[in-house]
Amino acid sequence: MEKPSDNPKQDSFERGPDAESKKSLERGRPANVPPPHVEPELPIFFTHPLLWAYRKFGIAAVVGFAVILFLLSANRNTIGRATVKLLISVLPPKRLQIVEKGHIGIGVIQFANEKDNKTQAFLVDALSSLDKGLGLQVMTFDRQIAVEENRTDAASVQAQRYLRESHAQLLIWGYPVGGPSKVGAKLYIASPSQSFGHTGSSPPMILELPEVFGDDLWLFVRLIVVAQLNAASVDRESSSQIAPFLDKLRSTGPAGWSDDTHAECAFLLGHAFQILGARMGIDQPKKTQAAYREAIAAYREALKGWVRDKSPSAWASAETDLGVALEALGESEHTEGSFQRDNSISDLRLDSPLIDWERPSANSSTALRILPDREIGLGHLEESVVVYRMALEEWKTLSTTDWAMTQNDLGTALEAIGETALGSQDLSGAVDAYEEALQKIPRLQMPLYWAMTQNNLGIALEVLGSRDASARGNEFLKTAAAAFRKALAERTLQTSPLEWAQTQNDLGTALQALGTRYPGLPGIVLVREAIDAYQLALNVWTHANAPASWAKVQHNLGLALETLGERETGDAGSILIHQAIDAYQKALTEETRSRMPMRWAGLQYNLGLAWVHLRNIHPTDKEEDSPLSQAIAAYRNALMEWTEQRVPLNWAMANTNLGIALSELGQQTNDTQLLCDALQCHVIAWDVFSSGGATSFAHTAAEAAAGDLELLRIDARDTPIKCVVEQSRLLGRMGLLAK
Q: Which domain covers residue 60, as residue numbers?
């Protein structure tokens, strides 16, 4: 699932007209308003001869024309002053400073009615001290922006020009308040409107802030910057700098601040902590969750000041972002407590390469015991759904665009619940939410957000399809692939390469799942298309610039190559399996046991299957480092993390395949101990499968155990084998001792 960058909606900061009114402002004039009557003007030659000369012939003409007028005119002083004034007005001002490559630019405009620029210097000092690894570039602009009560349209035009000219991410201006001994300011913040796919011609988003003084201004402006920039590397020091402000907000706060001001500050603080949580990453779960809990507390603080009846738009904004923080916390808790989606039983290779392995029914109870810890984080996810639905009630009448964006958020929460609790009903609800959002998201104005929602729709459909082995499941997968291709119409390699790579990977998973269900040429074509999609993603997600994503795609590529290799014979199949093994081994360089133990185990399991497939192509290979020996080592690696207590079905499945490989190697080497080890693997796997209700898997394990017994009896020549005696109780329950 995807969320907008760092989750919170940027445009929810804006207070004022709703989405429909904003559209009128963007068109320039409200609908149904006749143009004003304009009196005919005299030619500029008669009204402003010097300006006419400048436009027609340039500066030299102005000077020449002014000299002639100066010589001929009796009022030479007036002519001289007019010439100087014109020259000053037409000469272009000094260009604004441009943000250096790799930096985040913040432009601080000269404050209105302030000759000594004291407030501008104060803010520059505050922001410069914040740059501890954020890559900020604080710039002063010798410009002013007009400040008028309740009017931001003219300021928006100026801000847009300055942002475009300087390439800055934030623009700060305002006017000073207080007195000579106390620095204070009424602030306005503007940021570009390209977020979430808005076109560059749209006016910037402007946030009007309350009057702030002294130390509060110092803290407040730093908080705003962290909250608004979505900086790529918000560090712990930045968090510690703004954390004291939360304590101040929880108490009485600065004197004279209204409830609305308190709420605004708490809202922004929640946004800052939410960004901090998103930047921590899955390798720091406790710190990530602590940041999200701070964000949740701040949003709830904001909701105390923004009463729903009095401030519906502000209330809905805080309610929506509260939902985002709850959802992020739930997902983080679940990821820490279990392992991620692509290591679940539904995404692993379930078929044994040495025997016919019957795939479980989509409605089989086998799925019920995959992950005993799946409910971790479910409470916060379910709470986020409730919060989103409350916000939707307000957005429905306030803002069509915000309603659609919150529908997308609702979809991601339902999808997370569906994956966490293995519930198809929640996934279907996610599909409905995405489809409703897509009906209202203006594709022309928000193409990347529209594409993101299409991609989310595709992921939900792909998960539904992967759980349903019937023709209905195939239709889900086909519709998922279509949704991904629609997303790629807007997510292009040129405009948004990282998102384009993400969708190529997602398209590959849908095509691969579909290809495994079709025999013959149709299935091969689909799997080859999946491989092409993965390789396109790897052109962008390289090991150097995106190691985690690169490893994920390498894993998926390995699965597709292995699937294709199974359908080929001879050297062609061998080459494909070798390529699959190479892809798995590349993924293991990033998805290590210490960093991602469960993903590492899944990779080891799939690597074991690939080695066995290679053994099938060369069945006479008996070297110590043969594919069969490599497979046994890989399965045993997987079982280091796939324990019976943590993931019983995965543990049993790995034991089944390990037993098959041990049995085959035991036959080759006439090693009774290997056959005994194989029997033990199959018996304990049968026990777990049976108690978990996985009847088809239990049947396969029982058949494998029967084969082991037969080999042991031949080898023992009717002499009881110790390992058979040790397993006699379970073998009796399996009905195998009488054979």
A: 44-90
β-bridge pairing 170-179 and 104-109: parallel
Residue 115 CB-density burial (10 A; 0-12 exposed, 13-18 middle, 19+ buried): exposed
Band of pLDDT at residue 198, cut at 50, 70 and 90: very low
Rounded average pLDDT over 272-289: 77
Question: Which residue, 333, 273, 280, is CA-closest to 297?
Answer: 273
Q: Identify whether 307 is part of a domain.
A: yes
Confidence of residue 10 (pLDDT cuts 50, 70, 90): very low
Q: Are strands 170-179 and 205-213 parallel, antiparallel or unpaired?
A: unpaired
Asked if residue 433 lies in contact with residue 453, where contact means CB atoms within 8 angstroms, the answer is: no
- pLDDT higher than threshold 60 for residue 4: no
The predicted pLDDT at position 60 comes to 67
Q: Which of 251, 242, 248 is nearest to 270 (CA)?
A: 242
Task: Please answer whether residues 579 and 535 qualify as being in contact, where contact means their C-beta atoms are separated by less than 8 angstroms.
Answer: no
Count of domains forming the chain: 3
Between CA 197 and CA 404 the distance in angstroms is 14
The reported pLDDT for the residue numbered 12 is: 28
* 358 and 405 Cβ atoms separated by less than 8 Å: no
Domain boundary among 353, 381, 409: 381
Report the phi/psi class of residue 635: left, alpha or beta, with left for phi > 0 and alpha for psi in -120 to 50: alpha
Is 60 inside any structural domain?
yes
Q: Are residues 98 and 77 in the same domain?
A: no
183 and 194 assigned to the same domain: yes
Q: Which of 513-527, 686-700, 715-729 has the lowest mean pLDDT?
A: 715-729
Q: Could you tell me the pTM of the whole model?
A: 0.71
Instruction: Classify residue 632 as exposed, middle or buried by CB count within 10 Å of its CB (0-12, 13-18, 19+).
Output: buried
- 31-45, 335-349, 535-549: the lowest-pLDDT one: 31-45
Same domain membership, residue 160 and residue 53: no
How far apart (Å, rounded) are the C-alpha atoms in residues 606 and 352?
11
Q: What are φ and ψ of residue 626, in 5° steps?
A: -65, 165
Same-domain pairing of 234 and 294: no
Query: Is pLDDT above 90 for 516?
Result: yes
Q: Are strands 104-109 and 182-191 parallel, antiparallel or unpaired?
A: unpaired
How crowded is residue 563: how many other Cβ atoms within 10 Å of its Cβ? Answer: 22
**pLDDT digit string, tens, across residues 594-646:** 988 999 999 999 999 999 999 888 765 555 568 999 999 999 999 999 999 98
Residue 386 lies in a domain: no
DSSP string, 630-663: HHHHHHHHHHHHS-TTT-HHHHHHHHHHHHHHHH
Is the predicted pLDDT of residue 245 greater than 80, yes or no? no
Q: Please, what is the Cα angle at 607 between 601 and 612, to 5 degrees?
A: 130
Least Cα distance to 339 among 27, 641, 52, 17 occurs for: 641
Q: Output the pLDDT for position 633.
A: 96
HEC secondary structure over 560-587 = HHHHHHHCCCHHHHHHHHHHHHHHHHHH
Strands 104-109 and 136-141: parallel
Asked if the structure places residue 488 within a domain, the reply is no
Taking residues 19-29, report their average pLDDT. 27
For 572-637, the DSSP string reads HHHHHHHHHHHHHHHHHTTS-TTT-HHHHHHHHHHHHHHHHHHHHHSTT---TTSHHHHHHHHHHH
Amino acid residing at 346: S
| Phi-psi sector, 444: left (phi>0), alpha (psi -120 to 50), beta | alpha
Q: Has residue 419 got a pLDDT over 50?
A: yes
Angle (nearest 5°) at CA 653 between 652 and 657: 115
